[in-house]
Specification:
It is a single chain. This protein is of the alpha+beta class. The chain is built from twelve helices and ten strands. The strands form two sheets. It has a seven-stranded mixed β-sheet with strand order 1-5-6-10-9-8-7, with helices on both faces. Strand 7 and strand 8 form a beta hairpin. The longest helix has 41 residues. It is rod-shaped. The chain starts with a helix and ends with a helix. It binds 3,4-dihydroxyphenylalanine (DAH).
Length: 347
């Protein structure tokens, strides 16, 4: 019994397929390919031997062998493509640079608490019908003291630990110790009626502690109109306190002295750190002084040429930083200047 050439082809193809599949690299595959299809391959030999056959047999065998060759070629091509893909993937994996850096989501900044407090205070007063004005931080002695009823050598000047600038005559130019000089500038630049608040930075030679920082912010208020009384002042302060701190915080006016007001008062609110019983921040008093106020002294109206028979007014001035401190219950005011990001993030 002669073996069927179809069986031989089948086992040739199967053997070839196995070797092709097993070729683990492009080089190995090239060697297998040369073995299977090259000049000295079994297939090449069989194809060469076709010449010895008679024509009919030759055609049939030739077509068969050609079919085998095509199958093997296709398998080699398929395996090569697969090996190439694998090699490329390997190369890519080896070359891969991880350019993504894991960062925290960027932190969106916001205005500093003191600036926000200033904006909020302005809003409260604008809501009450006041305009907003500003003045310079470097002032002459005249605006900072003299026009406010403190002539040179007046003992009340001692209420402010003043920083003088080396400019002109000694002790004539100062870093303003309060925002009160803006009252003078305002009255010089516009005729009454005046309803204005004047926020800004002030400077004093103060030793920093829980309630004092040498660079701080005040907001000044000035009303000049006909028939203004102390009741208008008290009502304005009360309206402001409730609007800004809420109904739980009480305010009180205590008789006091300022050269530019008569009568004068200190304006205090319940200490929000302890709520009243007393703590380090309020020096155990339960009250925090926010600022001063009073009826504009006739001498101040006189300094800017206003007739005190026709006009009267009230003024107040208090600390913006102090308001921020009380509203946000910050026991020590110095943190407002330290720029510690952990604090800035919270407030
Ligand atoms: N300028 C005063 C200070 O810094 C605060 C002040 C008191 C302002 C009475 C006023 C006022 O307008 O009427 O200590």
């Amino acid at each position: 019994m002669t073996s069927d050439p179809g069986d031989a082809d089948t086992s040739l193809v199967e053997g070839a397929m196995e070797r092709i599949t097993e070729a683990g690299s492009l080089d190995a595959l090239a060697a297998v390919e040369a073995d299977l299809l090259g000049k000295r391959s079994e297939l090449a030999r069989s194809q060469k031997a076709l010449g010895a056959l008679d024509p009919d047999e030759r055609r049939a065998a030739g077509q068969r062998l050609q079919g085998v060759r095509r199958q093997i070629e296709a398998a080699v091509a398929g395996r090569r493509a697969a090996l190439e893909d694998g090699a490329r993937a390997e190369r890519l994996a080896a070359d891969r640079l991880d350019l993504t850096e894991v960062l925290e989501a960027p932190w969106r900044g916001h205005l500093h608490l003191v600036q926000r407090t200033r904006d909020e205070l302005e809003d409260v007063f604008v809501g009450m019908g006041f305009a907003v004005a500003e003045g310079p931080e470097v002032e002459t002695d005249w605006y900072n003291f003299e026009a406010l009823n403190m002539p040179p050598a007046h003992p009340a000047r001692g209420m402010w630990d003043t920083l003088y600038l080396k400019l002109g005559e000694p002790e004539t130019v100062v870093l303003r110790t309060h925002t009160s000089p803006v009252q003078i500038r305002l009255m010089q630049s516009q005729a009454p009626p005046i309803y204005a608040v004047m926020p800004g930075r002030c400077y004093r030679r103060d030793t920093p502690d829980a309630r004092h920082i040498p660079t701080f912010n005040q907001i000044e208020g000035l009303v000049v109109d006909r028939g203004i009384s102390f009741a208008d002042l008290a009502g304005t302060i009360e309206t402001f306190t409730t609007a800004y701190f809420g109904p739980d915080i009480h305010s009180r006016l205590r008789p006091s002295y300022f050269p530019f007001t008569e009568p004068s008062a200190e304006f205090e609110i319940t200490c929000t750190i302890c709520g009243g019983p007393g703590c380090r921040t309020c020096s155990q008093t339960g009250w925090i002084e926010l600022g001063g106020c009073g009826m504009v002294d006739p001498a101040v109206l006189g300094a800017v040429g206003l007739d005190d028979e026709r006009w009267s007014g009230f003024a107040f001035g208090f600390g913006i930083d102090r308001c921020a401190q009380m509203r946000h219950q910050i026991p020590d005011m110095r943190v407002l200047l330290e720029n510690d990001a952990r604090l800035l993030r919270q407030i």
